[in-house]
Specification:
Layout: H1 3-8, H2 10-21, H3 28-35, H4 37-50, E1 59-63, E2 69-73, H5 76-96, H6 110-121, E3 126-131, H7 135-138, H8 141-151, H9 158-167, H10 200-209, H11 211-220, E4 226-229, E5 232-237, H12 240-256, E6 269-270, E7 275-277, E8 280-282, E9 287-289, H13 291-307, H14 310-324, H15 330-339
Antiparallel strand pairs: 1-2, 3-5, 3-6, 4-5, 7-8, 8-9
Helix pairs in contact: 2-4, 2-5, 5-10, 8-10, 13-14
Length: 347
């Protein structure tokens, strides 16, 4: 069955709805869609079959943890379409990703990435840590489309990719500081760019965007100890000189993706100094939670204590414990719970 047929298959659309609504059944947008569920799903199926589907407008808002970011939420019916598209395309993407790319993928995630970082920290002396400036606002639509077309076995689904890409054009324009690359002219500022943070498609496409870079690091640089989680990546080695050579090559290669890095912090350092990564500071034999993570949760807990239900507080506390327990944080957990009069909820 071709990808276009798989997209429009009723079972795929029904599955997409189930995924999109998971954990959101009580929200007004989901409830409104469910009022006439069968009619809405049939309408989406017809629009996708006839290629007349058009995305709606985004609702944008800022979050401030772990840092200030603009989140753009698509209407619920569009989120169903995003899931329908990802259901049939993600298996092709995952086959092409390197083993040490960890974001969003089944059986991977934050904790697997942290464990892999610890593994490398115990075997190498130095680490080169890199992260992309304004990653989601900077993603170039033409380059992304070219990459996705290469990763998919058929082109008959690209019409939907184009619609979703176009719907996000300009959503993050105010979050992007224009950078000119070699060969650019004045019209380069008008290049379509940016993926709305909040779309399921954006999460997967961001991974795809840097997949050719992953291949470059692994194959051309020959780095065998490399980890990437979205736009944060680490290279390990025993030679500072080799890491500095890699640094130069990485900066040059990133220009091909129309991306820039935080060069001021991009230098080899001993792993014994600690590696700040995904909210933790990792050492070869232990790991700590970043201080700001603990402070942020205390603020959240105080707010929930004043305005949230006891069930909401319990769920938040348990979720936080599940996250921080992957570090040496038993004392921190007890301290937070004691100060919040919630001691005993960690069990």
């Amino acid at each position: 069955m071709e990808l276009q047929e798989q997209l429009c298959n009723w079972l795929n659309i029904e599955w997409a709805y189930q995924n999109a609504s998971r954990g959101k059944r009580g929200r007004s947008a989901t409830a409104a869609f469910e009022m006439t569920l069968a009619d809405n799903l049939l309408e989406l199926q017809d629009e996708l079959s006839e290629r007349t589907y058009q995305p709606g407008k985004y609702t944008s808002f800022h979050i401030h943890e772990p840092k200030k970011r603009l989140i753009s939420a698509a209407p619920f019916r569009d989120r169903v379409v995003h899931h329908a598209l990802c259901n049939i395309t993600v298996p092709y993407f995952e086959k092409l990703f390197i083993p040490d790319s960890y974001a969003n993928q089944r059986g991977k995630g934050t904790h697997r990435a942290l464990d892999r970082c610890t593994y490398f920290a115990r075997r190498y002396k130095y680490v080169l840590q890199c992260d992309v400036k304004q990653f989601f606002p900077s993603i170039d639509h033409a380059l992304l489309r070219k990459t996705l077309a290469k990763m998919l076995p058929e082109k008959n689904i690209m019409w939907l990719v184009d619609r979703i890409l176009a719907s996000g054009r300009g959503v993050l324009a105010e979050e992007y500081d224009m950078v000119y690359f070699p060969g650019d002219d004045l019209f380069s500022s008008q290049r379509p760019r940016g993926l709305p943070i909040g779309n399921l498609t954006s999460q997967w496409w961001a991974n795809c965007y840097l997949n050719p870079f992953d291949q470059f690091v692994s194959r051309e640089l020959g780095c065998t100890a490399y980890i990437r989680y979205v736009d944060d990546f680490l290279l390990f080695g025993d030679s500072k000189r080799e890491l500095m050579d890699w640094r130069k090559n990485i900066l040059n290669r990133m220009r091909a993706f129309r991306l820039t890095l935080h060069e001021e912090s991009m230098y080899p350092k001993p792993v014994l100094e600690g590696i700040p990564f995904l909210g933790f500071v990792l050492f070869p034999e232990h790991r700590r939670l970043k201080a700001r993570k603990g402070h942020a949760f205390r603020r959240k807990l105080l707010s929930l204590s004043a305005h949230g239900s006891s069930q909401k507080i319990k769920e938040s506390v348990q979720g936080w414990i599940n996250y921080v327990c992957y570090a040496d944080t038993h004392g921190l957990i007890r301290s937070v719970l004691q100060k919040s009069s919630l001691l005993g909820m960690e069990n």
